[in-house]
Amino acid sequence: MSGKTLYYHLVTFIVVVIWGSTFVFTKMLLLSGLSPAVIFTLRFIIAYVLLMGFSLMRNGHRWWCASWRDELLMAGLGVTGGSLYFLVENEALRYTTTTNTSLIVCSCPLFASLLIGWFYRSQRLGRVQMAGMLVAVVGLVLVVMNGHFVLHLSPLGDTLAFGACLCWAVYSLLIIPANQRYNAVFITRKVFFYGLLTIVPYFLWVEPFDVSVLSTMSASVWLNLLYLGIVASMLCFLLWTWVMDKLGAIVATNYVFVNPVSTIIFAWWLLDEPITPWFLLGTLLILAGMYLCDKHGDSVSKSLAE
């Protein structure tokens, strides 16, 4: 692995670790009385405003895509990676357990690889890569269960969690043509814009946005939201778009397997939740599986470039 490729992998790892921490920080915001839709909207507003300010300061700023088809593509990214993904995932937590939700949502690299391989024949996984994927899935199960091997099935909640999983898989597919025609800043700004635009019907017909809640939020809540908006949304979505272009969608998406690992570490640090030997074994299996999957990485990046 070259030094530059190693750098891309390191950036991807850092992004996923930060995203893993968001489950803990979001839980803190939920305990403070904010709804999932309000949390999503505020963090995306913060990210969009800052990214728009950065874009306006750059030369050659553009508002729209080169065609209406590309604009629809950006809207699809905003829905699958923004509004619909976050709403479906958070709604799943209302009907099923956190364990079920984590297992289903974080298995998205498997479905993303299958979906991308269906549309891009050159991206189909070989036997070694598929074996690595399955090893990582086993590791994911051990990490999320963390020694408590009990699943409580909930048809509605588990279906919603699977919907979130499919949303991210489709997002990983759509980002490939977007990266071929536009830069990471433009794509990320569009994701935030359409994510916010498509959350509006939810507030109109399901749960009105309570503006008064803004005046009652403490300084710690605002700091939490700033972290989610600036670091976890603006910077991480920007870097994620960039590394997906550099490493390929399949290789980058495989890092989602690390997400629950970082979540549990942050939960152990901030919420005093325990870590078991099963967690350590699962982490090793995830790393081993990702190593096998990464053998597909060079061909992915080359074929996408072609």
Protein model, in words:
By secondary structure, the chain is an all-alpha fold. The protein contains 14 helices and no strands. The longest helix has 29 residues. The chain is globular, with a radius of gyration of 19 Å. 47% of the residues are buried. The C terminus is likely disordered.
Q: Bin the helical content.
A: over 70%
Q: Give average pLDDT, whole number.
A: 84
Distance between the termini: 21 Å
How can the largest sheet be summarized?
none
Total DSSP E strands? 0
Task: Give the assembly state of these chains.
Answer: single chain
Strand content: under 5%
With helices defined by DSSP (H or I, 4 residues minimum), what is the helix count? 14
Strand and helix order: HHHHHHHHHHHHHH
Radius of gyration: 19 Å
Poorly predicted residue ranges: 297-306
Shape: globular
Structural class of the helices, strands and pairings? Answer: mainly alpha
Summarize the structure.
With 306 residues, the protein is mainly alpha-helical.
Helix and strand layout, with pairings?
Elements: H1 3-31, H2 36-57, H3 68-95, H4 98-105, H5 108-119, H6 127-145, H7 155-181, H8 184-197, H9 200-205, H10 219-247, H11 249-253, H12 259-270, H13 277-293, H14 297-305
Helix pairs in contact: 1-10, 1-12, 2-8, 2-10, 3-7, 3-8, 4-7, 5-7, 6-13, 7-10, 8-10
